[in-house]
């Protein structure tokens, strides 16, 4: 099925302004950009004759949860949001600019809040990773 713009003029303006780069990438990019900024996913509804997009400019994490997080935990959360793929403890420590021990404590706090999930086979699994949960 070929991609096409429902409104070619709007599609052209968006391309000229750098909002979109290629036809059909707008919705994927919208979800990605909102997740990177910690916002709730947009609600996208499509019928045969219309598209309805609801943007909810609310942080995916409640304010009281964010307030309980340390700056290290928030930095690690930002890294996970930006990269959108599983990362190991060491890599998260490096990317967020904290020590491995600090990252371990921050990840434990994030896991306790239900924000991240640990995936590994054993406690010392060198391939174990952390993934961002559904916020």
From TrEMBL:
<dbReference type="Pfam" id="PF13545">
    <property type="entry name" value="HTH_Crp_2"/>
</dbReference>
<dbReference type="InterPro" id="IPR036390">
    <property type="entry name" value="WH_DNA-bd_sf"/>
</dbReference>
<dbReference type="GO" id="GO:0006355">
    <property type="term" value="P:regulation of DNA-templated transcription"/>
</dbReference>
<dbReference type="InterPro" id="IPR036388">
    <property type="entry name" value="WH-like_DNA-bd_sf"/>
</dbReference>
<dbReference type="InterPro" id="IPR012318">
    <property type="entry name" value="HTH_CRP"/>
</dbReference>
<dbReference type="InterPro" id="IPR038475">
    <property type="entry name" value="RecG_C_sf"/>
</dbReference>
<feature type="domain" description="HTH crp-type">
    <location>
        <begin position="90"/>
        <end position="121"/>
    </location>
</feature>
<dbReference type="GO" id="GO:0003677">
    <property type="term" value="F:DNA binding"/>
</dbReference>
<dbReference type="Pfam" id="PF13749">
    <property type="entry name" value="HATPase_c_4"/>
</dbReference>
<protein>
    <recommendedName>
        <fullName>HTH crp-type domain-containing protein</fullName>
    </recommendedName>
</protein>
């Amino acid at each position: 099925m070929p991609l096409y713009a429902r409104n070619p003029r709007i599609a052209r303006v968006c391309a000229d302004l750098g909002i979109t780069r290629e036809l059909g990438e707008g919705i994927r990019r919208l979800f990605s950009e909102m997740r990177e900024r910690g916002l709730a996913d947009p609600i996208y509804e499509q019928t045969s004759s219309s598209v309805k997009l609801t943007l909810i400019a609310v942080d995916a994490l409640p304010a009281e949860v964010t307030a309980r997080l340390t700056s290290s935990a928030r930095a690690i959360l930002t890294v996970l949001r930006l990269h959108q793929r599983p990362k190991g403890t060491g890599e998260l420590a490096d990317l967020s600019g904290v020590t491995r021990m600090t990252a371990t404590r921050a990840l434990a706090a994030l896991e306790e809040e239900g924000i991240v999930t640990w995936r590994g086979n054993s406690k010392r699994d060198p391939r174990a990773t952390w993934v961002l949960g559904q916020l």
